């Protein structure tokens, strides 16, 4: 499905598509993944706003998925591969 990268600001988050489940990555200025998460349809903007000010990041990459189950599987693969600093283990 579609993928988009944008600045990690409140103004940009308010314009994020909210009609499908997503996997999102909060990225540093140099492109390293700080955090990976999943948001269900209708709650994408709210979920991203919860991280503002708590997880440092310059941009956020949104990847729309067909289902929340598919999003969860993708999230697990990304976390295993990149081991983001702000994702807790266990």
Task: Supply the key terms.
single chain, 90 residues, alpha+beta, GIY-YIG endonuclease, four-stranded antiparallel sheet, 3 helices, 30% helix
Topology:
Layout: E1 3-7, H1 10-13, E2 22-27, E3 33-39, H2 44-51, E4 59-64, H3 68-82
Antiparallel strand pairs: 1-4, 2-3, 2-4
What percent strand? 25-35%
Give the CATH topology: GIY-YIG endonuclease
| pLDDT < 50 runs, ≥5 residues | none
The tally of structural domains comes to 1
Pairing-aware structural class of the strands and helices?
alpha+beta
Total count of helical runs of at least 4 residues: 3
Structure explained in plain terms:
With 90 residues, the protein is α+β, with helices and mostly antiparallel strands. 30% of the residues lie in helices and 27% in strands. The chain has one domain (3-82): GIY-YIG endonuclease, CATH 3.40.1440. The chain has helices at residues 10-13, 44-51, 68-82; strands at residues 3-7, 22-27, 33-39, 59-64. It has a four-stranded antiparallel β-sheet with strand order 1-4-2-3. Strand 2 and strand 3 form a beta hairpin. The model has no long low-confidence stretch (mean pLDDT 94).
